[in-house]
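Quarterly update from the structural biology core.
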Amino acid sequence: MPSATSARHRLDGFYREHHRWLLSWLRRRTRHADTAADLAQDTFLRLLSKRVDPAQLRLPRAYLSTIAHALMVNHWRRADLERAYLEALAAQPEPVHPSPEERTQALELLHAIERMLRHLPARPRQAFLLARLSGLGYAAIAGRLGVSERMVKKYMAQAMLHCLRIDPEPA
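Predicted structure, tokenized:
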């Protein structure tokens, strides 16, 4: 069994060998040096958390780029959600604006909801969000989605069952 020291040296060497390449790969895709640096670090942290032996990887750059791509998509999804929230907030009258703490809590809640609904099919997700966030009734949702009220009820049941079945995954 390899010692912790030798494993640490292999990981250190792997990081030194591939970090610059990964950072460059991420910079080209994000066009933001700080975001690329954060995502590169998160990629190596994910590698560490999976306890992967870098010496066992046949295609290390493909492995790293797969992890980095998933993290990048998640980053963009979060940014889109935050942007939509801030735009909706800006459209509200000034007295309605929440405090910075309330805004942070609302964003955390939105991200948790997004994680819960991420793997739900599009129609049930849309119906659920229209009902819960927009407060629309089933008839109005049916009109928006171009389906029957009965189908909206089915979508809602599917969404609620999905939410009950899943364990919240970490951010």
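The first helix runs from residue 4 to 30.
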